[in-house]
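Support request, please re-run this one:
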Amino acid sequence: MRIQTKNKKIEHFFVVVNVLTSVVVTATFVLLYGFDEPQVFSVRTLHIIQIVAFFVFVIEKLARFVNSFSRREFLAVNWFEIPLLIALIVLVFGAHKWFADPGGMIMFSLGTYLICQVVTKACRSCVDLAASGRNPTTALIAVFMILIVTGAGLLMLPRFHNLEHMSFIDALFTSTSATCVTGLIVKDTGSDFTTMGQVVILGLIQLGGLGIVIFGAVLALLLGQALSVRESVAMQDLLSTQTLGRISQMIGFIFVATILIEAVGALSMLNMWNDVAPVAQLAGRRWFYSIFHSISAFCNAGFSLFPKSLIDYDDHIGLYGVIAPLIVLGGLGFGVLYNLFQVFYDRVKRSIRRRLNRGVVFEKAPPMKIRLQTKVVLSTSAILIIVGAIVLMTLEHYSPQPDHDSRFKCALFQSISARTAGFNTVDIAALSDASKILLMSLMFVGGSPSSTAGGIKTVTLAVIIMVAYATLRKRPDVEIFRRSVSLAVVGRAITVGLLFLAILLGGTFLLSITERQSGFDLIDIMFEVSSALGTVGLSAGVTGSLTTAGKLIIIATMLVGRLGPLTLLAAITFNLKPVRYEYPSEPIIVG
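Re-run finished. Output below.
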């Protein structure tokens, strides 16, 4: 919600003050908690800077309150500021009575207040940037780049890793992989990073999976701030939704569904770590392992705290009863989940109404139906999972290499994971070439639109297949489930497929040049590029040995795969206007 102000210059001045103060506050936290010993400034000096920053934020709020046309509107938008400030004041004045270390408690409370200020301002800035009237996709790319660089900077701090030295390239690779929910690693997540570093990686996974702009909109709605029309239009574009009036409902559903699904997943995983010695005895570590793998699975990130991913848990029921469903739910897309929830809720509501009012025969409103998008996503996903599992089991059963596990449950999990999750229960490097080609095909397709997954998406594959089917059957229109698909959607599907294929071949070509001295097989190089482009995270053993140039190629590929080549193309061609003329047609021969 935009607040009308009396003096625009004052408003712009305090915007600059907010940015500078937020940067200073962030720097103080980095210096306090990122190093083993204080750097540049003493702890006392950093605490004084934080106190000054607190007063700057308070003065800024008072000045903007006076400068606003409607003070009631200003208070309505910033209602959370008053209880937050009151809580801080109560803790400051009561710390000497209630706590053994009053000074530490005061600075902890002050730090919490400052973090809340910086986070809310950053999230609102992301939403404002997306709704600035410029191309929302450009804002999305900028936010992703800022998030990746910030994450890389944090992971390089001494207290965030267990290495003697963390290079910028390795930190950037890890940050990109986490933000793009890929899962490819050059450093072991469980041993090379401290708990603080693992929390940073987890935060990047969550923000990258949901999207920092969507997170900002969620925060605004939680704080009772309605989205403006321009902000709703920006969210509609980023969420690929069709109904502008239900954007707030959709965003609220995304937040609630994410928290609920990840919480249930974490609770269900608590008993999976009974045989992990350092984890089984510590309740806190069990909870952290459960939360980490639950978020990683639902966001289709594939990051694991174990050096061999989930190979040691191939017989655990939690792998197939918890992690696999989390991967599937995360890959279906929030639009599909929202539609299924609407249909379920509508049927339950109608059933209750009929029981309470037995005389009612007809309903005023028509029943909620499953949309075409949902039907296509569910049917295509089911076919890919089942066919992928059967083919993979068959290929490995007749593989000439020994010690290959061809059990159906392992093949089923790998078929689910290869679509974009990146967890593995078998050694990918030891698979046959035919199995690797199958996995590359699944990675190329990926998940579904508006999900945490990558790839060309299931709907794109379905449309391309139906284009070929319509051509073979001499149908004038592309039809799916007795519904016609518009020519614009067909063109977009073909464009996405061609762009992904071009990037896959181009990345493979470049990587084969940079890694020509490494002795990697071409199929393993293509597998690595497919994994990065599909934001999957499965590796044939190439990632850890990449050269610096090779890592940069994979970083760029992961970013393109997460944003989507069509998003990048839209950002470039946003200002191009469509032509309003047509040339005369003339037949040509193809095929």
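Strands lie at 478-480, 483-485. The chain has 24 helices and two strands.
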